[in-house]
Amino acid sequence: MNMIELLPKDLHALKINSIKKQLANIPTVKIKDVRRNNKLSRYAYFDGHYYLVDSKRGAELARLADERRRLTEELQILKSAWYAVYREPVPEMIQPHPVKRVFVGYGGQLVKLDRKFYEDLQPESNPMFLEYKKYFYNGVYYRSKAEREIAKIYTNLGIEFKYEPAVLLNASNTETYSDFVGWDSITESCFFHEHMGMKSLADYAHKAVLAMSDYTSAGILPGVDIIYTFEDADYNFDPELTIMQLSLLIQNRLRNTYYPTVGK
To answer: Looking at the predicted structure, is the pLDDT value of residue 243 above 70?
Structure first.
């Protein structure tokens, strides 16, 4: 499956403009091998100065150089795919920007869906039903083939995510183990993704409805802060629809005028 070819047009443009914005904020650093006193050493060259990549400053500059190289390569792939399909300039009117999103955590505290929240999450926190975790991908065992496919989608789209981290919602006094919490670099905000399998079974369906209710009561809005996907014996998981849902979630955030009040 070629994820680039499956990108909806608006999301494709947003990813291009998002990377261009990121590149504009990353300085140009050159990595050079320099021989001094008959010894070859690697340096980061920036602003007229050389820094050994083994030094603290040099290591940070080398990281920025690597990040710039990675983003530049990704941008070229996205732009080539864009012009091959649409044969028109990438619309500048579709611009990424930070969007403040919050949810109501345990005890009624507003929790920002920001980078700190994402960094603090501990992946694979769910201790239940470990015997079902048998679908391996990229160092992680997932509970279903569909969850593994979702992980592949996010990985191929360059979206960071954590699998089954523990989250405390206001409507529950126990931890909720979200299937996925992703980091959307376009809006600089986290989003949730719950995959509901076997929804035709009454007990599982009841639990799924309760979970959706807990998310909604915490202010985690469907299509804005969370994606729901489904499957059962008669309805197969569709990766293309997941990508479309992700595109709509991002566009809803960018185009919606509602921003919850976030404490400083």
So the answer is: yes
**Cβ contact 60:49 at 8 Å:** no
Q: How far apart are the first and last CA of the chain?
A: 43
- The two structure tokens encoding residue 219: 């202010």
97, 138 contact by CB (below 8 A): no
Q: What is the pLDDT of residues 183-194, one digit of tens each?
A: 999 999 999 999
CA distance 244 to 238: 10
How many residues are listed for the chain in this entry? 264
Q: How many other CB atoms are there within 10 angstroms of residue 33's CB atom? A: 8
Q: How far apart are CA 61 and CA 52, in angstroms?
A: 10
* Cβ count within 10 A of residue 207: 13
CA angle 128–140–236, rounded 5-degree value: 80
What is the DSSP track for 65-96? Answer: HHHHHHHHHHHHHHHHHHHHHT-SPPPTTS--
> Cα separation of 147 and 221, whole Å?
21
pLDDT band of 262, cuts 50, 70, 90 = very low
* % pLDDT > 70, the chain: 93
Q: How far apart are CA 190 and CA 171, in angstroms?
A: 20
